[in-house]
Task: inverse folding
């Protein structure tokens, strides 16, 4: 039996993803063996991250303050929206340096099994952004980026929505749902889906039929 | 039944060719059993209740980590013992490998699986693991019973013959689960057909894409085994044409499946589940146009199942380079002398088989050279080292025990 404060920290650590009871124990002893200021710094960081980080009012990405750094950045193309499931999905897209538009974080994907329907995702907000442009857009002051691109709220109109939900059953259904809704609500907007196919450096022989089938369907001229 | 167990994916080399030594400790009725199996036919003989099926089950357990009777850990461990173990030396092209499965009902982490002493998560995708084809009399339902078992059987075969189709099967079942959950929720909320249709639309499309792919894969698999099964049926003395055909309900064109699903929205909503798609398909076994399922005699059904297993073994051997080990429990009963001779002849042609019988004499040629014999004595609960298909004084290979 260990003193209660130790038990409490072990229990708290073991609630973290990927941390089992042994690792929790080890982390706890590690914290005990370090100087006081290390523990204080960790505690402060934990509290601060919860107090200071919230959702971006526009795209629902993680943000310090009202808007995230991407929505704040006037160099990001406001006519281009990339739809992702979670804030964690923004990072990998950013790392490609291929994408210069803005994001829209859904907060998940359709999954009736888990009781997640269209109203549980930030879908209405997405459709409004596409229809009306972003409110209080930093790009607004510099005028429309496309000739005919201004709307009543002043933000430049979205011209393309890239749906980058995961290539899972849930992600696919979510993409199809978004595609159908946008075709109806904003037929002028181009809706695209990230291509899926062969991983770079892989062998054709080892590709499964679904992947190879999609790679074929999405083949392009060279 | 015919459990085609899902073998490792088609990987060149290393496939299990046959089981060598089988060692059993505290499993079912056995205190201990130690059997040296030959590469061909081994006859497991003994009176009713002696534990013949248990020996087959132990072989299956050792190689798959599972029971072919869906037994729980408590069922598998001998009464009075705390834990049991089954291990098999698998002879592959690249040398022997020992598969071992420890069963302890008290263990929190389930069965302990090892290959050559190294713990593994699963034996199922180990490259050296032999595939096994099982015939059990109480599972004749595969031929007699409903379509669900035949679908499952076809899908297991699909997994062996076309491992690359696994994502399609997974995607289909996931999409079906999601769509059914949505139907249930729409029904509970009392949503009208038109609004429900909008919510169902993305799931219809997702389900249809996977359904069409699965239907194609199943049809091609059924077509692939049909000729071999037919040949085997004739060799077993089953007169007339034995026809295996996949009877899909859904189209192989995703757009047609979407349309068919949309047509049935009202009915699906009412019942709260999807009633169109490959989850309702059947694999029909017909002889001269008549369904064996309904019109076949006991003997015909038995021969049909054996023809199916043997034909599948042929196709698996051709596709993967290794023939599944046949575990045939009580297969000789209900067969006349001519059919017995034919069956044994086919089994002895190639590959390894373990056949249980009440009397060795029921297997024509049981005394021949190259045919192993394991006598299971009731009550003894011990099968001593038996050399089957090998000289009785063959040196034991103790170092290969896990």
Result:
């Amino acid at each position: 039996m260990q003193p209660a404060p130790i038990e409490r920290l072990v229990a708290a650590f073991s609630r973290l993803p990927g941390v089992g009871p042994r690792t929790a124990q080890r982390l706890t002893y590690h914290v005990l063996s370090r100087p006081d200021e290390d523990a204080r710094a960790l505690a402060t960081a934990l509290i601060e991250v919860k107090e200071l980080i919230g959702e971006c009012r526009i795209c629902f990405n993680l943000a310090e303050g009202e808007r995230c750094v991407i929505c704040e950045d006037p160099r990001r193309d406001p006519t281009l929206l990339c739809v992702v499931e979670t804030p964690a999905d923004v990072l990998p897209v950013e790392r490609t340096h291929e994408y210069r538009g803005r994001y829209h974080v859904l907060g998940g994907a359709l999954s009736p099994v888990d009781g997640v329907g269209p109203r549980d995702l930030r879908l209405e907000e997405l459709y409004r952004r596409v229809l009306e442009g972003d409110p209080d857009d930093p790009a607004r002051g510099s005028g429309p980026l496309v000739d005919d691109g201004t709307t009543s709220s002043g933000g430049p109109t979205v011209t393309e929505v890239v749906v980058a939900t995961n290539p899972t059953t849930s992600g696919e259904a979510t993409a199809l749902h978004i595609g159908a809704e946008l075709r109806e609500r904003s037929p002028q907007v181009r809706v695209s889906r990230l291509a899926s196919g062969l991983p770079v450096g892989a062998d054709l022989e080892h590709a499964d039929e679904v992947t190879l089938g999609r790679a074929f369907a999405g083949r392009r001229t060279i | 039944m015919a459990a085609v167990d899902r073998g490792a994916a088609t990987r060149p080399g290393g496939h299990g060719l046959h089981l060598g030594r089988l060692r059993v400790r505290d499993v079912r009725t056995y205190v201990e059993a130690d059997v040296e199996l030959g590469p061909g036919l081994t006859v497991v003989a003994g009176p009713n209740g002696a534990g013949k099926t248990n020996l087959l089950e132990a072989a299956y357990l050792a190689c798959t980590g599972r029971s072919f009777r869906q037994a729980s850990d408590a069922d598998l461990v001998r009464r009075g013992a705390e834990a049991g173990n089954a291990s098999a030396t698998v002879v592959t092209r690249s040398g022997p490998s020992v598969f071992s499965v420890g069963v302890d009902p008290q263990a929190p982490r389930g069965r302990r699986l090892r290959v050559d002493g190294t713990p593994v998560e699963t034996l199922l995708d180990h490259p050296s693991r032999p595939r096994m084809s099982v015939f059990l009399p109480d599972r004749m339902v595969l031929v007699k019973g409903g379509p669900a078992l035949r679908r499952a059987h076809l899908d297991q075969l699909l997994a062996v013959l076309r491992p690359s189709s696994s994502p399609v099967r997974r995607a289909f079942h996931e999409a079906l689960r999601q769509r059914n959950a949505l139907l249930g929720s729409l029904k509970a909320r009392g949503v009208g057909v038109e609004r429900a249709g909008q919510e169902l639309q993305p799931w219809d499309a997702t389900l249809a894409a996977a359904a069409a792919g699965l239907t194609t894969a199943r049809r091609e698999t059924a077509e692939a085994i049909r000729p071999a099964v037919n040949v085997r049926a004739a060799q077993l003395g089953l007169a007339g044409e034995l026809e295996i055909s996949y009877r899909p309900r859904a189209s192989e064109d995703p757009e047609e499946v979407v349309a068919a699903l949309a047509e049935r929205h009202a009915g699906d909503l009412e019942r709260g589940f999807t009633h169109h798609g490959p989850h309702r398909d059947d694999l029909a076994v017909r002889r001269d146009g008549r369904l064996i399922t309904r019109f076949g005699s006991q003997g015909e059904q038995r021969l049909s199942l054996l023809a199916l297993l043997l034909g599948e073994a042929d196709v698996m051997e051709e596709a993967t380079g290794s023939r599944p080990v046949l575990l045939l429990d009580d297969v000789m009963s209900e067969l006349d002398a001519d059919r017995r001779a034919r069956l044994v002849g086919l089994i002895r042609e190639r590959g390894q088989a373990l056949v249980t019988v009440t009397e060795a004499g029921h297997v024509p040629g049981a005394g021949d050279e190259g045919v192993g014999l394991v006598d299971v004595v009731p009550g003894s609960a011990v099968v001593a080292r038996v050399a089957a298909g090998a000289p009785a004084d063959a040196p034991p290979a103790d170092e290969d025990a896990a």
Summary: The two ends of chain B are 30 Å apart (CA to CA). Residues 5-14, 387-402 of chain B have pLDDT under 50 and may be disordered.
